[in-house]
Every structure is written in C-alpha cells, then in structure tokens.
Design goal:
Strand order of the largest sheet: 1-3-2
Helix content: 40-55%
Number of strands: 3
Shape: elongated
C-alpha cells in the first residue's frame, strides 16, 4: 500500500486516514486480498494497540477512523501494518491464480524504485 495518509497531527487524537494502492490498482476486488487487509487490521488491534472506530475497504484504497492506545504510536502501527500487508499481498498475487499478476507486480516494482 502506498504511503498516502491524510491527517492532522495530534498524537492523542482520532484520525481519518486514507491509504491507497499504488497507481490506484484494484487489488481488493478479490476476496483473498481483502482478507489479508482485514487480518492485518485485526492483528494490529489485538497486538499493536490500534484502536479502530470504523473502516471501509474499497477496491483500491482503505479508509480508517483510528487512534493508538495509550503508550502506542499510531505512525509506528501504520508503518508496520502497511509493510506487513504489502508483503503479504505481493506474496498472494504471486501464488494465487491471478490474470493481472504480471501487470500488477510490474506496477508495484516500478513504484518501489
């Protein structure tokens, strides 16, 4: 997931966040990929101090209403979640039957350079 996030800095506040897929690729049109995101959110809630008040997963981006629990840093939680999630998504794209595999991996590799 790309690093597009929009919020006002307030370490103790609740934020509206938007995270987009590189080039707005419709990755989350397949259930397998959606489940990776949901599992990552759930893990961050249970293990990393992510407090979610609402979320909406679209075909190419994710909206969150989120905060960090006491003595946790939202920026760190999101960094770790996005890193883990993007690796899991690329792995799934490589392993699952995917008609757009080469095109998506090429777009992601180009953006990563």
């Amino acid at each position: 997931m790309s690093s597009s996030q929009y919020f006002i800095r307030n370490p103790e506040g609740t934020y509206f966040l938007t995270m987009t897929v590189v080039d707005w690729v419709d990755v989350f049109s397949r259930p397998t990929y959606r489940h990776i995101v949901v599992d990552s959110l759930r893990y961050c809630q249970q293990q990393k101090g992510l407090r979610l008040f609402g979320w909406c997963l679209m075909s190419n981006h994710l909206h969150l209403l989120a905060a960090a629990a006491d003595d946790h840093n939202l920026s760190d939680i999101l960094r770790d979640m996005k890193k883990h999630t993007s690796k899991q998504l690329v792995k799934a794209i490589q392993e699952e039957p995917e008609s757009r595999r080469d095109w998506m991996l090429q777009r992601f590799a180009y953006a990563g350079k």
